[in-house]
From TrEMBL:
SUPFAM superfamilies in alphabetical order: MFS general substrate transporter
One Pfam family cited in the UniProt record for this chain: MFS_1
Membrane spanning stretches: 20-41, 47-70, 82-99, 147-169, 181-202, 252-272, 292-310, 317-335, 341-362, 374-397, 409-429
Main localization category: membrane
Keywords linked to the UniProt accession: Membrane, Transmembrane, Transmembrane helix, Transport
Cellular compartment(s): Membrane
Protein name as catalogued: SLC45 family MFS transporter
Range of residues in the leader sequence: none
Source organism superkingdom: Bacteria
Keyword Cell inner membrane attributed: no
PROSITE patterns xrefs: MFS (PS50850)
Membrane topology: Multi-pass membrane protein
InterPro entries associated with the record: MFS (IPR011701), MFS_dom (IPR020846), MFS_trans_sf (IPR036259)
C-alpha cells in the first residue's frame, strides 16, 4: 500500500535541505581548490584528469550500494537514510580538516579518495530522503530547494577561496607546499560538513515504512550475512534491467554534460594561467570568482525555474540551459579582463541550477517509491561513468589532440554541452 505523504511547509522543506549546504561546500572545494593543490604539490597539467579519478570510481561503487542498502534499512530511532549521510558527513569533515596539511602529492590524492567516499555516502541517501518525504506535487519545489543549497554551498566555498587569497595571499609561491591562505577554507568546510547535516537530521523526521515495506525489511534482516551482502548488487542489477527508457535517454545527455563539467573544473585554473598570465594562486582565486558568480546566479534562479518547468516542460528549460552553458564556455577563453570574464557565468549559473534540479524531479516522478534509493544511486552512476571516462581519456586528448592547450580544452567542453542540449530534447515526462 502506497503511503499518503503530507504536504510540507516551505520551512520544513528548507530544514530538510540545509545539509546540502555542507556537502556542496565540500564539493565546491573539490571543484576549485583540489586541482590547484595538486599543482602546488608538483602535478603536471596533463595528469590532472587521472588524479581526479577518485570521484567517479567512488561514486560508481558507493552511491548505488548505499542507495540499495538504505532502501532495506529502518530504525525507529535513526530512520532509513539518516545514518548513512551522518556517517558520510563525519568522514568528509575529518578529511577536509586534513587536506591542506598534505605534505606530498600522494597524500593529497589519498585523502581525496576518502573524502569522496564520505561525500558519496552522504549524497545518495540524502537525495532519496528528499523524495521519500515529499508528495509528487512538491517534488519540483523540493529538488529546486536542494538546487538552491547546492548553489549556496559552492558559492560560500569559492567566495572563501578568493577572499582569503586576497586577504592573506601574496608573496612568492614555494614549490611543493600549499600556501596557508588555503587552509582557512578547508577548516570552515570541516565545520559546515557536520553542522549542516546535524541540522537536517535533528529537524526532519523520516516517514516510517508501510507495513508491507517493514515486512520486507525485516525479512531482509533475517537473511544470512552473505545473502544480505549480495542483495544490493542483485538489486542494482535488477533495477538496471527494469530501468525506464527515460533514464536511458537521460544517460546520453549526462555523458556529454558531465564530461564537459569535469573538463571545466580541471582546466579553468590552467586556463587563467595561459590567458591572463596569472600565477597558480591568482588563477585559483580567479577560478573561485567564476564559481562564486555562477553559484550566486544558481541560488537566485533555482526556485524561479519551478514555474517555468511547470509551464513549458522540464526538457525545454533543461535543453535551453545546457545551450547557454555551452555558449559561456565558448566565451571565457576569448576574454582577458578579470571582471568581464565573469559575465558568461550568468549563463553557466542558470545551466547549473537546471542540472541540479530538473533531472532529479523528472526521475522521481517515474521510478517506484520502494526503489527510489537504488534508482537515485543509478542516476549518480550516470554522472560518475562520464567522469570516469573523462579522467581516463582526456589526458591523452588534451596532450595529443588539443596541443596541451587549456583554451582548446574549454572549447571542447562547450561543444559537449551543445551536444547534450540536443539530446535533452528527447526527454519526455508528464508535466506537473
Amino acid at each position: 500500500m502506497k503511503i499518503t505523504k503530507p504536504r510540507l511547509s516551505f520551512w520544513q522543506i528548507w530544514n530538510m535541505n540545509v545539509g546540502f549546504l555542507g556537502i556542496q561546500y565540500s564539493f565546491g572545494l573539490q571543484q576549485t581548490a583540489i586541482n590547484p593543490i595538486f599543482l602546488f604539490l608538483g602535478a603536471k597539467e596533463e595528469l590532472l584528469p587521472i588524479l581526479n579519478i577518485a570521484g567517479p570510481v567512488t561514486g560508481l561503487i558507493v552511491q548505488p550500494l548505499i542507495g540499495a542498502i538504505s532502501d532495506k534499512t529502518w530504525s525507529p530511532k535513526w530512520g532509513r537514510r539518516k545514518p548513512f549521510f551522518l556517517i558520510g558527513a563525519i568522514m568528509g569533515s575529518l578529511c577536509l580538516f586534513a587536506f591542506p596539511l598534505s605534505p606530498a602529492l600522494w597524500f593529497a590524492v589519498g585523502l581525496l579518495w576518502i573524502l569522496d567516499v564520505g561525500n558519496n555516502m552522504a549524497m545518495e541517501p540524502y537525495r532519496a530522503f528528499v523524495g521519500d518525504k515529499l508528495p509528487d506535487s512538491q517534488l519540483s519545489i523540493g529538488y529546486q530547494m536542494q538546487s538552491l543549497f547546492v548553489g549556496a554551498g559552492i558559492l560560500l566555498a569559492n567566495a572563501s577561496i578568493f577572499l582569503f587569497q586576497s586577504w592573506f595571499g601574496g608573496g612568492e609561491e614555494t614549490s611543493g607546499s600549499i600556501p596557508t591562505w588555503l587552509y582557512y577554507s578547508f577548516f570552515i568546510g570541516s565545520f559546515l560538513s557536520i553542522a549542516t547535516i546535524l541540522w537536517s537530521v535533528l529537524k526532519t523526521p523520516e516517514i516510517p515504512p508501510s507495513d508491507e515495506e517493514l515486512q520486507e525489511i525485516n525479512a531482509h534482516k533475517g537473511l544470512p550475512f552473505i545473502e544480505r551482502f549480495k542483495m544490493p548488487f542483485k538489486e542494482i542489477s535488477e533495477a538496471v534491467k527494469d530501468m525506464p527508457k527515460f533514464m536511458w535517454k537521460l544517460s546520453a545527455v549526462y555523458l556529454f554534460q558531465w564530461y564537459a563539467l569535469f573538463v571545466y573544473w580541471q582546466f579553468i585554473t590552467p586556463l587563467f594561467r595561459a590567458t591572463m598570465g596569472f600565477d597558480t594562486s591568482e588563477a585559483a582565486a580567479q577560478a573561485a570568482k567564476m564559481s562564486t558568480t555562477y553559484n550566486i546566479v544558481t541560488a537566485v534562479v533555482a526556485l524561479i525555474l519551478v514555474p517555468l518547468t511547470v509551464k513549458y516542460g522540464g526538457k525545454k528549460i533543461y535543453a535551453l540551459s545546457l545551450v547557454g552553458t555551452g555558449l559561456a564556455l565558448f566565451a571565457i577563453p576569448n576574454i582577458s579582463d578579470p571582471v568581464m570574464v565573469l559575465f558568461p557565468m550568468v549563463l553557466f549559473g542558470i545551466g547549473w541550477a537546471a542540472m541540479m534540479g530538473i533531472p532529479y524531479s523528472m526521475v522521481s516522478k517515474i521510478v517506484p517509491q520502494e526503489r527510489r534509493g537504488v534508482y537515485m544511486g543509478i542516476l549518480n552512476m550516470m554522472i560518475v561513468i562520464p567522469m570516469g571516462i573523462q579522467t581516463l581519456s582526456f589526458g591523452p586528448i588534451f596532450k595529443n589532440l588539443l596541443g596541451a592547450n587549456s583554451v582548446n580544452a574549454m572549447f571542447f567542453a562547450g561543444t559537449c554541452f551543445v551536444i547534450a542540449a540536443i539530446l535533452a530534447m528527447r526527454l519526455n515526462v508528464k508535466k506537473d
